[in-house]
## 1
Amino acid sequence: MTNDKLKNTQIASLGIMFFLMCGLRMWFAIFLYFIFGITLTIITKKRTYCANFCPLGALSDAFSFKENKKFLKLPKSIQYLTFIVFFLYIFFILYYNWGNIFLLWAELFKFILFIVFIALTLQVFYKNRTWCTTLCPMGKIYKGIIKYKI
Ligand code: SF4
């Protein structure tokens, strides 16, 4: 396991996310990060957010395994399905819990923990950052921004 390569920006971003979600219980913290990621990608035209600021990317790097070399090959259909389910689920959380700040926070927090669990479990068996390279819906949005020069 290697965790000596985390950048200061990754550590800071992870700490801020932890503080916002666990300290302040700010349910919309995840959306602030989405906006920050999109803005940074548009400005830099690179995956700057993924490489330097994404809390999940930082956790993936912190819990990365040098010895994993296997690629996870997934059909495009699974990747599209993940993309759709990811955003639909967030939409349902917002829709059904709107007006109740505690439930919004609790459901989004559970969802974040679930995604972290999936991402870290994947890289136990496959290459590091497999979630990032194959499934992450936000990563696909950032990729699209760069590809289509938005
Ligand atoms: S691909 Fe997704 S999880 Fe990975 S660093 Fe980018 S936004 Fe974060």
## 2
Amino acid sequence: MIRSIYNKFFQKLQFSLLGFISLLPTISNASENIGVPEDYQLTFQDAATPNMADITWFHNSFLFPIILLITLFVTALLIYVMIRFSAKNNPNPSKTTHNSLIEVIWTVVPVIILIVIAIPSFRILYTQQDIPIDADLTIKATGYQWYWGYEYPDNDGMYFDSLPLEEDELTEGKLRLLSVDNPLVVPAGAVVRVQVTSSDVIHNWAVPSFGVKMDAIPGRLNETWFKVDNPGIYYGMCSELCGVRHAFMPIEVHVMEKADYQAWLVSASEQFAGKMKDSNNIELVKLIK
Ligand SMILES: [Cu+2]
């Protein structure tokens, strides 16, 4: 009951925001861009994975009401105390210094609240950390100053760099600071295991609509996973301050129907097969300068 009321509240909030946004110039071909931030966005992006749906529920329908009630209770208590015990209304203050019952209550009640919050929180954390052993596809994402490189170990180690598009390269439907030349491509409905690492400093591979945010640490292989059923384009960014071009290492994920993915794989295998990272890549040298 409470859950549905708050879902409606957040849906309405989002709805009114969407109405406002529709007055602003819209990005053409936006129907394809699903996991993307919106102007004046307040809440999370729409969930594309079960994990993100859980995170959204946890925040919007669980934590938010608890925080709201506590805030209202404390505010009401403060207002009551300010009026009831002001110097004017209460000229002779009580000399009471201790009340065991109240002290027990104000210790035990917060503990109970924290335990109640911890139970669903740990469950969600566990599903994020529990990498399915029967993953359909493994991707290795490596952070470089300042772009991402993707390797497909299941496909002869196919590797490609994923560089952000320059402003003069932005064609219709491409987004500034989000679109890349070679996006990560995965099949819809597949469990994708992502191994995340870095070659220089700490980066972070984060896609908000997937509920994925994993540190990329040099010399360490971190793992995360996602499963997206809805084909479309989803965006993320490096989420760890990693240097002067930290804001210029976006993540673009194309989720394709299985047949389209197979077709992409055939052409990409030819284009990228056996291609290892080339430190003399002209485009990279341009970026580093
Ligand atoms: Cu980075």
